Amino acid sequence: MSGGQDDLLVSVEGVYKHFPIRQGIVFKREIARVHAVDGVDLQVRRGETLGIVGESGCGKSTLARCITGLHPVTRGRILFEGADITGLSKAGLKAFRRDVQMIFQDPYGSLNPRRRVGSIIGDPFAIHGLADGADRKRRVQELMELVGLNPEHYNRFPAEFSGGQRQRIGVARALALRPKLIVCDEPVSALDVSIQAQVINLLNDLQGELGLTYVFIAHDLSVVRHVSDRVAVMYLGRVVESADGEDLYRAPRHPYAAALLSAASVADPDEAERAERIVLIGDVPSPVDPPKGCRFHPRCPKARERCVSEDPELVPREGDPPSHPTACHFPVEPGERLSGRQAVIAQVSTEPDLPEADR
Fold first, then answer.
1. Which CDD domains is this protein grouped with (predicted)?
2. What global pTM score does this model have?
């Protein structure tokens, strides 16, 4: 999707989010930091769906919480409709959250089991003083009907609903204030496959009907491919490749993206047999002590000495359009096969650098 600055809804500029590791009982001192998000640049345009994929621990959910204001950023800034939201006051943050909402991964843990569904969905109206009494009940029941729930179940508790229905309750709550952006943090990973399809189709229908913009985080690459206009691939706190969805799935340029996509399930057994499967050796390095240079080099089948000493920029590589940047010195060429090749350059240590007494 292309467009000018007027189409730009969210701009993430050089965002870092580090979590300190402290030691001590009375006087706590910082001994290390978890580099959860480490210099991310992203743009989200109005009406599109940006998919974010990567292994567990790569920083996807932390980045999502930074965008929604749930985590303060360590460094960098996030612009929403051109305004910097990283230093908002409490009142400013409350107003900002009318435009940005989140659908959480766990449809069980994200709903208070002691409160009735009508009260849960109606919370945004109560917090922002937009409706009360009969008007609030009417609006809540309209939202329930919009997401495929029976409005007559207004007074039921979450335990009386299935997992898919509970996630629809979460969707209804996120839609209450008609936000401009919804961050979906793995919204279908805890659901059965058949229910996943229903929730994804619901989100697609709501996007077309209400003009929503999504940031969609998921582990299931086939789901991301189905829903996303653009896809960003994260590894160890950084975006290593970003492109239009079909371009990325057809010809990934970063070796990590190629390995990740090769693990995606394929419905056609003949196509699955022909597909290349790239098996990465080794574990993801510790985010407390990330590798120098390219962070993927200890596991990369194409790594060379330059990858150890020089951190690659996230820029378009030769032959790629401006919309397809890749952080790799030696990107995957069309038709190149990586299966059977193993990393030849290992990192010296993936353990955090802690004081001697803590080893």
1. ABC_NikE_OppD_transporters
2. 0.88
359's tokens: 């080893």
Give the pLDDT score at 5.
62
Contact yes or no for 173/124 (Cβ under 8 A): yes
* pLDDT one-digit tens code per residue, 46-88: 999 999 999 888 999 999 999 999 999 999 999 999 999 998 9
- For the chain, what is the domain count? 2
Amino acid occupying residue 283: D
Are 319 and 171 part of one and the same domain? no
- Quote the Cα angle for 3-6-10, to 5°: 90
CA distance 23 to 135: 52
Same domain, residue pair 130 and 200: no
Strand partners, 215: 50, 183
Neighbours of 359 (CB within 10 A): 8
Q: Determine the pLDDT at residue 335.
A: 81
Both structure tokens of 169: 């309750």
- Nearest residue to 86 via CA among 101, 59, 68: 68
Give Cα 100 to chain centroid, integer Å.
15
Do 205 and 326 share a domain, yes or no? yes
Residues 136 and 284 in one domain: no
User: Measured between alpha carbons, how far is residue 273 from residues 262, 267, 269 in Å?
Assistant: 12, 11, 6
Q: Distance between CA 211 and CA 205 in Å, rounded?
A: 10
